[in-house]
Amino acid sequence: MPSHSxxxxxxxxxxxxxxxxxxxxxxxxxxxxxxxxxxxxxxxSFEGYRQLTLRQKQQLGLHRSAFNRxxxxxxxxxxxxxxxxxxxxxxxxxxxxxxxxxxxRRLQQLKGTPxxxxxxxxxxxLPNKRSVCLTDDGWQRQTRYDWYGRKLLISETFLSAFLSGxx
Length: 167
Known about the structure:
Number of helices: 5
Helix content: 10-25%
Strand content: 35-45%
Oligomer: single chain
């Protein structure tokens, strides 16, 4: 049975129409495609190696001994488009290099494929730990997933077009 925990890290409360999206289990990709009535369009803004930040190391649950050592991760930043010309969601996926082994290596080859197609191919839910916060760009959910014993971090920010349009 997947374990889930949620942490709302500030005192603001998300709009009621966004709560179910922030707390949804399973593939956000599938839910967004259902809402759009069509496949998502994925536009990559960055894909490559970056150093993990201290915050990312904490979110990934790395031990304190790892905090002072530089650690590389494969990072992918994308905008997800539903059924209009404005992006609905801005997402960042962080895969520590130590997690990119075995079947997880395919996560470096996603190109324009939504990550949900890969992560939730064999399972509707995955063990995770999630926090929700309000950023300058919108409400964001940050989820640490355990995928085949590999930890990865996905941040998804719901942009104003998601709430304001016919989305």
